[in-house]
User: Fold Glycerol ethanol, ferric requiring protein from Coemansia furcata.
Amino acid sequence: MSDSSLHTKSTARFDEFATVDWIDDAAKERRRQQSLWGHLGTRRMSLSWVYLVYDAAVSWIVVLVAGVLIGVNTALISIVTEWLSDAKEGVCTTGWWLNQKFCCWESEDACTTWKTWDHALVGGSSGFIRWVAFVATGTTMAATCAFLVRGYAPLAAGSGLGEIKAILGGFVIRGFMGGWTLLMKSLGLALAVGSGLSVGKEGPAVHMGCCIGNVVARNFGKYRKSAARQREVISAAAAAGVAVAFGAPIGGVLFSLEDLSSHFPRKTLWRSFLCALIAT
Assistant:
């Protein structure tokens, strides 16, 4: 492959950037509000109030659902990561899906159900076999992670914090917070951490949280048509991502307020705290 083609492939994801016109977005939101009130004026009073309550509750429903999904996703990644880390050293004879801690859960003294790779393969103690198995499994995990990200989701590379800051400032990166990026990021993070690479979950947790918030919000017309409201959900989801990484809901909200978002109204503060608390 020539140098020019390599350069084109490596920068292809930066070719279609756009920015949000906040003035136009605010005008669309005002027209939506005017249309909503005008439409309600033709309905009965009881139905009007029900619709208004629903329109106001959608914002809380979105951050609530996003918080639950962020917590579930992070929990699954933590479970898989622990299993992959222990898989470099041995295997559980009573269930290959169990890590060492749960395999030896009922063992008070010596654990006979957990076998290191030398005992599992040759039935005896061999430091060389343990070393080969450790290196081979770790290398396979790291290579699989690199293959998935390079071949299927280049936007999942890195922590994603810099891009999240740009998106919250009005920069549009298509596909960066999509469902496919979320899937590859989740798999890649578990494989990368489990392989023993010098990486952590904190930055990627923010990116995955924003992906979940974006996927949930775009199923509601109120957010799908308003970039400003999407930014509020992403800010809350980013706070939840930091919260699940460190177990600190208030710390996640403060991080989103101080380091990520350039626009953080009071209502976003409370929704971010709810999302972070539920996720944690």
In short: The beta strands are 18-19, 90-92, 114-116, 171-172. Residues 45-87 form the longest helix (43 residues). The CA atoms of residues 175 and 189 lie 18 Å apart. The chain is about 70% helix and 5% strand.
